Amino acid sequence: MKSISALTKKLSDYLTENQVEQVKKAYLFAQKAHSGQYRQSGEPFVSHPIAVANILSSFRMDQDSISAAMLHDVIEDTGTPKSLIQNEFNKEVANLVDGVSKLDQLDIGSKNEVQAENFQKMILAMAKDIRVVVLKLADRLHNMRTIQFLDREKQLRIAKETLEIYGTLAHRIGMNNVYRELEDLAFKAIYPTRFARLVSAIKKNRGGRKRLLKKIQKNLQKKLLEQGIPAYIEGREKHVYSIYRKMKERRRSFEEIMDVYAFKVVVDNPENCYKAIGAVHSLYKPIEGRFKDYISIPKSNGYQSVHTGVVSENGQPIEVQIKTGEMNEVAENGIASHWLYKAGNVSSDSNPQIKARRWVAGLLEMKDNYDSPKDFIESIKTDIFPDEIYVFTPKGEIMEMAAGSTPVDFAFLVHTDVGHHCRACRINRKLAPLSVPLESGQTIEILRDRLPQTSPAWLNFAVTARARNSIRHYLSNLKTSEAKKLGKKLLDQSLKTINLTFKDIDKGELRKALDSIGVRSLNLLLEEIGLGKRVGNVVAKQIIGFLEKDPSKHDVKTVPLEITGSEGLVVNYATCCRPIPGDSVIGHFTADRGLVVHQERCKNILAVRKDPTQCFPVNWQDELATAFSTQIRLLANDEPGLLATISTVIANTNTNIESLDIREYGVGTTEFTLGLQVSGRDHLAKLIRKLRSMKTVLSVSRIHDQEMRKAKILH
């Protein structure tokens, strides 16, 4: 009873008497349920739940979490029903115990469907109550602390599972103390000799560094006091497995990895974090590009701090992390930090619990898009369990990235503005596509344009959350802006047919008219028109109907919209018929895609072409600077250099080739399907005439995608 007494005394520091009594009751329940059961160490089994509860108490977790820790094995190991736990305690405790009971023997490397479903259950349990994962990690931590009592085969299986899953998961939710200890314990179990050698080398290195560390620490302390900044400073040492991993992946020696002195500076408020940075930079020369502000923009797991790299007077590189006491608590314990008073703070964007819930919610959204748990796991491996690559900036700085990252991901990692203005890249000083996956050891240089170059196509190959979110956010804002412009143009055209403009309408009356339509603001109305959610001439009739008692005397006409080719994301060109300037065209309203321009004879819109709520008349503007995509089919007799000759003819007409497909049509005959960029029908007609004049060419014709698919079936 001594251990439970020590625990209850510890809990009394922050829990009420009644809350502590609930924990005692849970202990007695567990003791009775596990009666006669022993661990491999020979200790009574109940010693394990007490140890797990102690770990949670160090995070100052609530009474339900501590009670669940006491009971977390009773369903799985004693056959106690969940209903009994709920009756004896409460629903929350029962759900926590049940949630943890389902999380058993995960192995993401396995293709076993059962294991995949088990992992998915963990995500679902986390979504219902984020405390489930904290409880599970505490359980795993104590099991790893006592792993030496298991046989070698079990040690290896559990240690590998811990290294690949639980350690990474702890890191992902910001529980860095747990993450570091889990990794070191797993590393020790898998490679005991390597672990022992590294520990010995670290101790020797620590002895040689001690004097210099104390000197640097003293200098930092003195400088901060001079600036009136109270601070706690300590040297920060990498954990054993982290050193081993970096030596292995970066192919660096132990001395190279340890040749950077790291310090953690804890101050009293965020303002002093920035003041402290100035003090550090006035003491030691800053290293360019090493300043990172995670206070203004916290990491996804809630981590906040400002980082800088400086060089001491003897040339020694120094890493300095500056944070407040609360930030330090979050950095060490993540979602478990200050649980009691943070759990209800839903308004804080840096709250790790809120961030964890959002992250899990995002995973659950992804889950619905996949047919099986295996597919789901494969899709999120890069987010939860990322493989890492290390690339270099042109200045030699090492950048750590998720495997599969592209130059676009790299650009957004450097800075959001660099990402948006990225137009090209060099990999190892050679021009390369923005979509190519990066490899460790490469040097990446981003070439920027004065204007933003962000493209929807980037979403097809960007893999990091930072890049994808930035791209989506930019495109969303751009689309909204373009939709407003298009919506205003469409509504203005309809109002002008009755000689009415917005200026002629009283603001108060317009406000009432918008209310009658059921829209909050004029901007929102224009956006909805531009996105195809409302029709301009219909809205015009609604406004006039509200403003005038007898609107019938006004005939609101539909005026064709002039297409310029530069409307952006809210005017799209149908891929089924690929319209180009000179074609008779019609606009088809598609919700959220805006206006999709089709050829008037396109079969896909025949059924709705006469519906004014779905289709809108459009014309081409006389002067168009934009190139448009089209396709042609060319049949020719085989001869040496045929492709080169055709390419030369096309190039001489200032036409770009977007795509090329070549296949044998018959004996001695080749079929070419070419995707081209042209300015319009005249440009295309000129090109076709040039190609038809070639002696080897049998036929040339413009095709649509539908026709091309038919051709593929025939041939």
Please explain how this structure is put together.
The chain contains 28 helices and 20 strands. It is α+β, with helices and mostly antiparallel strands. α1 (2-11) packs parallel to α3, α2 (17-33) packs parallel to α4 (63-71) and α3 (47-58) runs antiparallel to α4 (63-71). The protein folds into five domains: 2-193, Hypothetical protein af1432 (Orthogonal Bundle), CATH 1.10.3210; 202-334, Beta Polymerase, domain 2; 394-463, Ubiquitin-like (UB roll); 478-620, no CATH class; 628-714, ACT domain (Alpha-Beta Plaits, 2-Layer Sandwich), CATH 3.30.70. It is globular. The relative contact order is 0.04. The model is unreliable at 103-112, 340-347 and 705-715 (pLDDT under 50). The strands form five sheets. Strands 1, 2, 3, 4, 5 and 6 form a six-stranded mixed beta sheet that branches. The chain has a five-stranded mixed beta sheet with strand order 12-16-14-15-13, covered by helices on one side. It has a four-stranded antiparallel beta sheet with strand order 18-19-17-20, with helices on both faces. The termini are far apart.
